[in-house]
Amino acid sequence: MQIELNNLVRVYNSADGLSKVAAVNDISLTIPSNQIFGIIGKSGAGKSSLVRLISMMEKPDSGEVLYDGERVDNLSEKELVMRRRRIGMIFQNFNLFSSRSAGQNIAYPMEICGLPKDEINRRVDELLELVELSDRKDARISTLSGGQKQRVAIARALANKPDILFCDEATSALDPQTTASILNLIRRIQSQMNLTVVMITHQMEVVRDACSQVAVINEGKLVELGSVNDIFLNPKSPVTKDFISHIGSDRKAGDGSDIVRWSQEGGEYELSFPSHQQGAPVLSNVAKKFDVEFNIRAAGVQHLTDGDIGKMIVDFTGFQVKEALEYLRNQDIIVEKAGE
């Protein structure tokens, strides 16, 4: 299911009621079918408002939302109810019924749709097996861990066989290890069911580990859009650069996934290496070809869904620094002043 957004605008009253705030400000983008697409932004950036429009929870003040080329922002109330049944939603706080067991929570959307009891029971068993909770069907929600609750919520979101799955900060309340397991589960489900998955998050780690494309939202506007690989290799907006610079705080240094800095001094240039250059002796070649010396202050690898990005923070000294940097750029290496 491809989703197309054309010039979406959503305006709210400010907290004091004296002015208007454009939470979504003329955003246009296309979310490809059968992929995991990330929407990332800081608190208050407008990403949650945008998702309410995409998922038809609210109507835009202007603009269009299209699913596979058909407008859905102007559906009648009856059409809206029917279309929403083909959308799955996962939330940060799980939104499960504490009075129901795990299996009964999963059954609830199908009960609302009036499916036969035998069919509901079969589907509940299928979904519990899918999320690896077959032995917890009759468990009370209060007895489940955070990760297990989110697995029940995922199963419930899939109950009516949706073609779109929205994950609104679905891992924000989970520890890093549980987050990794939930992201692995979502990737597996997306692949098996050919779902279009939209992940809303403020965590760049989630984008890195799960998504193939990402939109960066700031102050209600789309500030960057592209493949995760391209954006990690060459981020353009200050917001995106700030997100990427803070990645790795939940990883152990030395596990191959961090940018590990062993010197807090210096570090004038940041080098980003695409996959085909990560095994090449690039800096050694630079030192041989030009009158320069280099000092590596930090290095590491970011593992993405479509490949790896190598990073280094380096100082160069000598008479041919300008020529050396130009040589690096000609080798498909991104060279930027660190911190810019």
Automatic annotation (TrEMBL):
What InterPro entries has UniProt attached to this entry?
AAA+_ATPase, ABC_transporter-like_ATP-bd, ABC_transporter-like_CS, ACT-like_dom_sf, MetN_ABC, MetN_ABC_transporter-like, NIL_domain, P-loop_NTPase
Question: A Gene Ontology MF term for this entry?
Answer: ATP binding
Q: Name one GO biological process term.
A: amino acid transport
Which UniProt keywords are present, listed alphabetically?
A: Amino-acid transport, ATP-binding, Cell membrane, Membrane, Nucleotide-binding, Translocase, Transport
Q: Where is the ABC transporter domain?
A: 3-244
UniProt xrefs under Pfam families: ABC_tran, NIL
Lineage: superkingdom? Bacteria
Task: Indicate whether Iron appears among the record's keywords.
Answer: no
Query: Which SMART domains does the entry link to?
Result: AAA, NIL
> Known SUPFAM superfamilies for this protein?
ACT-like, P-loop containing nucleoside triphosphate hydrolases
Alphabetized PANTHER family for the sequence = AMINO ACID IMPORT ATP-BINDING PROTEIN, METHIONINE IMPORT ATP-BINDING PROTEIN METN
The protein here is known as: D-methionine transport system ATP-binding protein
